[in-house]
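Example A, followed by Example B.
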Amino acid sequence: MKKLIPLLIALLGLGTGVGAGMALKPAPEPVADACAAVSAAAAPAAHGTPASAHGAEGTAGAEGGKAAEGGAAAEAPCPPADPFAPETVAGEGEGGEHGGEKAEIAYVPIEKPFVVPIFAGDKTVAMVVMSLSIATEGEKAASELEAVQPRLRDSFLKVMFRHANSGGFDGSYTTGRKIEDLKSALLGAAREVVHDAPVDEVLITEIARQDS
């Protein structure tokens, strides 16, 4: 019994020392808090705020001390930044690469209406009156179209004469395939005349047939 008493005392002292060591051990800093601290320290430099040499040395010293004391917390990598976060997305909205606006559509009316005769043999049996307008992009393109209106009128009249001679103005000429073929032919004629300005569409703004 006398031999067991010193052994019990030694075991009790060892357990007390281990418990005290665990109680006094500093808790490691969370990885998220360390990353937040690093991000906060780097924020002024990212926004262009200059740092003094003294401040930089102080920050470096503090970071070195934390790295020495933190141990496992310093070794844990910070989670990567979200590339799709709103503050990191570039090129969107105003001033971005894709923020440019498309040129506004401009409409150039042909000054005078077109008068197309309808023949039956050698006799004129009707007259078709049409007014046209050309859709383009931007004021500059509109000015270029106005400058070549005489050539456009000549090409449009040729298209209308061919359409009339093929029976395009007979029967229900304002709906269906007949009017679509006419508009397609007018658009092709306009694009053959105008090479520098874009021609989006040729609009028939007025059309009427008057029989003799």
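Example B, a separate protein, is given below in the same form.
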Amino acid sequence: MLFIYYPKCSTCRKAKKWLDENGFEYDEQHIVEDNPDYDQLKALYEKSGLPLKRFFNTSGGIYREMQLKDKLTDMSEEEQLNLLASEGMLVKRPIIETESICLTGFRQKEWEEKLK
């Protein structure tokens, strides 16, 4: 299991605490120091079955500064993945990946259903 997170993010800390309390073993990937590259993001996106927009941190300052809300619809999948790969703070976090699933953001009920 891979846990992609940003340590200063309160949601990531809650998710990490939940994983630890429930006895999950996982590898950590710091989203800023080791930002997922294009290939990793594409694989996560494909495994998740989610719309690519769900991989963007829509509440983040960089997302708002770049006015991506209005631009994403005109961007290709490749352009969006390249953008995500260029800046870790644009990526929705945390991300959890197992052999069969990928989840973005921490919604405890969803994690309980899909990881247990």
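On Example B: The mean pLDDT is 96.
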